[in-house]
Every structure is written in structure tokens, then in C-alpha cells.
Amino acid sequence: MEQYGSRPPNDGPRRGTPPSAPLPAQGRRPAGGERGPGAAPVPGGVRRGPGGPGRPARGGVRRPVPGGGPAARPVREAGPAAAGGRLPNPRLTGLGSGLFCLAAMFLLGWLDQLLFGASPTVYGVLFLPVCVLTALWVRGGDVLTAPVVVPIAFAVGLVPVAEGGGGLLGSLMGLVTGLATQAGWLYAGTLAAGVIVLVRRVRWVRRRRHHPG
Predict the structure, then answer these.
(1) How many CB atoms lie under 10 A from the CB of residue 2?
(2) Which of 40, 47, 50, 109 could bridge to 160 as Cys pair (CB 3.0-4.6 Å)?
(3) Do the beta carbons of residue 162 and residue 177 sit within 8 Å?
(4) Using only C-alpha atoms, what is the Rg of the chain?
(5) What whole-number distance in Å separates Cα of residue 130 and Cα of residue 150?
(6) Mind listing the pLDDT tens digit for each residue in 193-205?
(7) pTM, entire model
């Protein structure tokens, strides 16, 4: 009588069962992520999946940001509200500020003659903001030219406003009379420009001492 405990283990294939055929070389998936023969290598460890070529595989290593720091956020550009909130602040040379003051006063003189009948008071009132702008817009190294240019521009713009007779001599006498009668506006505008220039000059010298070169 046969005992089951003494039967040797059956490790071999059963009778009538053909041995399993080995997988072809193309169907094998070697370890380490290598591809089989005949396949073109993909540089950079990028697989071509259903999402399209060049898409990195999931779980891949992310490339570090150059510099070792986090990616810089895009800087928001100033909108039209921020840009429009600032007043114009040009920087003119000494010659540029002189030309600006002369042209502005000559134009205001003609406008005063056409619109207000050559009113000396209107001309004097318009002279003050021109003096202030000339002293503010000239650059720091040429601020001392503003108090010199302002009286000359006042006399040039007073030509169409001053009342004079015919001829060159009559116009010259009208100009001298206008300068004598409107000396208050001339002094006020020159004084305003001088004070602004003095303050800006002191600040400019202090800035140059703290930051030489």
C-alpha cells in the first residue's frame, strides 16, 4: 500500500504539458528603464506618451531653477492710473530751461494781447507759474541759470503787451514803461525762482557730498 508521506515532491513539469516558450527579446522589459533592441533612445529621460512627444514622465526629477532660488514672479506693470498720477518732471539743461522760459513768456504775451487786450495784470499773473516751472525743471547742476533767465524772458514777453507808438523808438519806450510799471511782478517771479533754486542747490550739494562720484 502506497503511503503519501513518502512520495517525493513533484517539481518538474507535468506529463503532457509542453514547456513554456521564452518571451521574445522585444517583449522583455529590462531593468533600469532600458529599451529593447531596435528602439531609438529618447534623450533626457522623456517618454513619448499619449499626451504628445516631449512630455516628461510622471515621477521624474524636476530641473532646478537657475541660481538655486525660487522662480521669480513676473513684475506687474504700472497701470494707466499709476502712470497718470505722477506729474511731469523733466530735467532741462541751462540752455533748455532758458529757451523754455523765453518761448513760454513770448507765447503768453501774444495770447494776452489777443484774448485780454494786452492786460499787464494778466501777463504778470501768468509770469509766476512760468518762473516756478523753470526753477523746478532745470537740472541740479544748472539751477543757477534760472534766476538769470527769468527777467530776460519777462522783458521778451512784454513786447507785444507794452503800449508804444509807431517805430522802433516808440516800441522801446513802451517796453521801458512796461518794465517800470510791472516791476512788482518781475521781482515776485524772480524771487520765487531764486528761493526754489537756493533750496535745490543746497540739496544737490549735500547729495554730492554723501554720494561722491
Answers:
(1) 5
(2) 109
(3) yes
(4) 45
(5) 9
(6) 999 999 998 998 8
(7) 0.57
Residue with cell 494786452: 118
Q: Tell me the residue length of the chain.
A: 213
CB of 54 closer than 8 Å to CB of 46: yes
User: What does the DSSP 8-state code read for residue 192?
Assistant: H
Cell numbers placing 36: 529593447
Cell (9 digits) for 22: 521564452
CB atoms within 10 A of CB 124: 21
CB distance 149 to 209 below 8 Å: no
In this structure, which amino acid lies at residue 114?
L
- Please list, in sequence order, all residues whose beta carbon lies within 8 angstroms of the beta carbon of residue 165, skipping any fewer than 6 positions away: 171, 173, 174
Residue-wise pLDDT tens digits, 5-17: 555 555 555 555 5
Give percent of the chain above pLDDT 90: 34
